[in-house]
Design a protein that fits this description.
mainly beta, SH3 type barrels, eight-stranded antiparallel β-sheet, seven-stranded antiparallel β-sheet
Amino acid sequence: MKRMLILCLALLLLLPALPCAGAETPSETPLPQEIAAFFTGKSFENAQILSRASLSGFGSDDRFFVVIRGKSNDNILYAFKQKNGAWTEDFHTSSAVWQTGHGIRIEVSESGREWTGESYSRPHLYIGQENDTGEYWELTAVFELQKGKWMLHRIAGYTGYDSMLIRDGKISYYRDRESDQIAGTAEGTFQRDLRYVSLDAIPKTLAEARRKLTVAPGLPASTELTVVPVTFTDNQKWDVYSAPDKASLRGANGKARVSTNSWIQVFGTDGDWVLIQYSIDASHYRFGYISSTSLPKKASVPALQFHQTPVWLRAETEMTDDPLYSRDALLTLPEGTPCTWLASFGDWAYIELNLNDLARGFVPLSAITADRVFDMRSQPADSGVPVYEGTLTVTHDDRLEAAITVFPDGPLAGQTISRILVTDTPSASPLASLLRDEGGTWFGNCGLGGDVVSVTLTALDESGNPLSPAVRVEW
C-alpha cells in the first residue's frame, strides 16, 4: 500500500489543479474541440472540470475521459469515443466516481505494476479521491479494460474502504493497508462494468461482503421459467408486486422494492411488467414483477409463455415468493382453493389466484390437482354435522367420482340405505346413483356436462324415500 501512496503522490505532483470548464491546462492533454464544445451547454453552467485522461492506439477501445463537478456538487465521469473522426459521448456515470468534496483525479495507464508488485499489460483507468490537502490519493478505484469493457479491478483504500482485488463473482480483501497478503475472499454476484457499477454497492469490508453478497442460485428444471441475461442501470429502485398489476399482493408487508445495485435475474415480460428474482440477503430471495420501464433501452426480453391450467389445492398450503431459499409464506391458502397453474419450477408450481387480491407465487407441485377433490368430512349438512367421509372428486375432464362412507357418529349412522342419489342442486336433475360394496363404501361416477357447479347427495331408504339430512357440495 505504501507503494500505491508513493505512486499517487508522484502523480499528483505532475497534475496541477484544473480550471473551470472551457479553459485549458498545459500539463494535461487539451480537450478535443468536440468535447470542449460539449461542456459549454446550459446544463454545464458553473460546472468544473476536475480531471481528464485518454487512451489512444487501441482502435475502437480508444476513449477520452473527463471528470466534472456538476451544479449539485456531484462528481460525474464522462467517456467519449470517436465516431466518423469526431469525439462523441459514449456514456456518463456518477456512481463509479467517489462522491466527495475532495479533489478527484483520473489517470489512464497502458501497462505497469500494481502496488502489490504484479505487472499488468491491459490498460487501467484510475479514479482517485485526494485527501483534504491534495497531497495524496486516499481512495482509488481501478478499472481494467477487458474485451472492450472497463471492469472494476481493484479498490485501494486508505479511508472508508478496505483494499481489495475484484474479479467476476469474487472480492478478495487484504489483511491491512500496508500488506499484499489476502485476508479472505467472498463470493457473490455484483456489477463490475464502469457504465453501470455503483461503488457504494461494493461491500467495504470482508465481513460485510460475506454478509451481503449473494450467489445466483441454481435453478430447477422449467420449460416456462428460464433466465434472460439483462444488465440493469445502477442506482434505481423499483416497487415489486407478486403479479403484473399494481393492485396485486405485494411482499414485505406491502413495501417490497428492489435496487438495481443488487443481483437480479430476469425471466420475461407480461404486458408492461417483467418477472424477476432478486436477493434480499444471503438467505432470502424473492420473485416478483417490476415495471418494464426498468429495462435498459436495448434489452431484448421475450414475453413469458405460461400455460393456463385451472387447478385446486389438495390441502391447506402456504404460497411463497421464495421457493429456493427461505420459503417464507406470502399467503396461507385453504384446501380446495381454485387457482391457475402457470408454470412448473422443479418440484414447485407457479400459480395465480384471484380471490380478494390478485397474487402469484409458488406452492409445492404435489399440492395442486387438476381434479377437484372434496373431503366429505369438510362437507357437512346445513346443520354443520358431518354426514359422510371419504372423497368426492370433480375431475379435470368434467366427471364426478365418489367413494364415500356414512360417518360413524353422523345422523345417517345405523339407518338402512338402499342407494345415495346425486342430483344437480339447482335443477334437482338426477346425475348418478351411488351403490354400496361389501366393505360399506358407496361408489359411483357420471359426466357433469360442463355446467354443473353444485351437487346434492341424498340417501334413500329401501322404499326410495329420502333420508335426512341431504348434503350439498359446491365448486
